[in-house]
Design brief:
Helix content is 38%, strand content 9%. It has 85 residues and is an alpha+beta fold. The model has no long low-confidence stretch (mean pLDDT 92).
Length: 85
């Protein structure tokens, strides 16, 4: 999982993902990294997917049910997460 990678090693990962994306020639793409089975991680090591998005119909489709949010609860969550960092 991503949380298992030491921070100093993480600085090496995104430049490689960028090089792969550029080398693919895709003008528009998604960069995806899954953590855990419920998040669709099948291979048990950290890896990134560069998924070209050439048209609205092709590539990664992203959708989840949008709902209204309680801004006070969202701010409280932000402060809780920030305090743990």
């Amino acid at each position: 999982m991503l949380a298992d990678i030491p921070d100093d090693s993480l600085s090496e990962i995104l430049p490689v993902a960028k090089k792969v994306a550029v080398a693919s020639g895709a003008e528009q793409y998604n960069l995806l990294q899954n953590n855990g089975r419920l998040a669709h991680q099948i291979v048990d090591h950290v890896h990134f997917h560069v998924i070209p998005k050439p048209t609205p119909e092709e590539g990664l489709g992203i959708g989840w049910p949008a709902k209204e949010t309680d801004m006070d609860k969202l701010k409280a969550l932000f402060n809780e997460i920030k305090a743990k960092m």
